[in-house]
Amino acid sequence: MSKHSKQSPGNLVIEYEATPEYQTPDAGHQTPDNERLDEFKRRAQQQWSANPCGAHVAKELEFGTRDYFDAIEEYRYKVYAPWMKTVIGFAQYSGKRVLEIGCGTGTDSLQFARNSALFTGVDLTPRSIEIARQRFAVYEQQGEFFLGDAEHLNFPDESFDVVYSFGVIHHTPNTEQAAQEIHRVLKPGGKAIVMVYHRASLYYWGGLILKRGLLRGELWNASPAALMSRYVEHTETGGRPLVKAYTRREVRKLFARFRDCKVEVNQLTRAELGAIGRVMPEPMLQWLARHFGWNLIITATK
Questions:
Q1: Which sequence spans correspond to the domains of the chain?
Q2: Which residue among 24, 26, 45, 135 has the highest number of C-beta atoms inside a 10 angstrom radius?
Q3: Angle, vertex CA 291, rays to CA 289 and CA 295, nearest 5
Q4: 212-230: string of b/e by CB count within 10 Å (b at 16+)?
Q5: Runs of H (alpha helix) within 140-244
């Protein structure tokens, strides 16, 4: 692998390696299991160190300022996913102990803290922890942030009322173990709110498999898993993180140890539909989003 460097937001110079294409374990990858899992986690750290979550929409603004963070927040809740605040219900957890697994740059974290949750965030990437802490300082909010691995949470059993993880555990090698850890650290009656990518979605079948895989011929020399690793996450550094997608049946199995599990579908933008999206009636767009959107939102009670 060849080494490169990138000037990240905040003028932090990050060394990273141009990563080869993602290979599934049955695609001729001969690395021992433990080494391969470590490699996947290393790729995740490289991806989000060099490409902080949401930062691409605020590149023209001074890093770490209120304007910078406001731009990321506005894009997330007004442009990309206007449904999020209603569906997640950030305001419902005042006084509750909330853990976020994969806090990223702290956009969702801030919503919990603003609504008086007792907030703790963990992330695998040191750079994300730095940015999230800075964000809380800018807005004068209280919260704790720690380095942490979704598969091995460093908290006692039954520590939290809510565990939240949006678009994170589908990047870790052992997603089943991450779901077990969520269950373990929740108090009885506690709630898990988790988003993973939806395989039965327009984006997966239309944007990845049909457009890139078949029409552009990329499936001749790449697996669907490799296409997801190559294209799903925004990158300016050639990052190739592990990316998985699930069906509704599969996520119900992942969260089977919970006594109640509700699965919703959402996330589809007009831009993803091209010319048709620009003229599509809003009710039709929302129907498609709720049936064939890119996000599966799991709400499960211990």
A1: 3-261+292-301
A2: 135
A3: 65
A4: bbeeeebbeebbbbbbbbb
A5: 175-185, 202, 224-231
Buried b (16+ CB within 10 A) or exposed e, 19-50: beebbeeeeeeeeeeeeebebbbebbbbbbbb
Tell the residue number behind the tokens 């974290």, with chain if given: 109
Choose among 245, 298, 255, 292: nearest CA to 88: 298
Answer yes or no: are the C-beta atoms of 1 and 20 closer than 8 Å: yes
Regarding the domain delimited by 3-261+292-301, which CATH topology (the fold level of the hierarchy) does it fall under?
A: Rossmann fold (3.40.50)
73-105 pLDDT tens trace:
999 999 999 999 999 999 999 999 999 999 999
Half-sphere exposure of 40 (CA within 13 A, CB side): 26
Q: Tell whether the model's pLDDT for residue 198 goes beyond 50.
A: yes
Q: How far is CA 199 from CA 13, 14, 292, in A?
A: 36, 33, 9
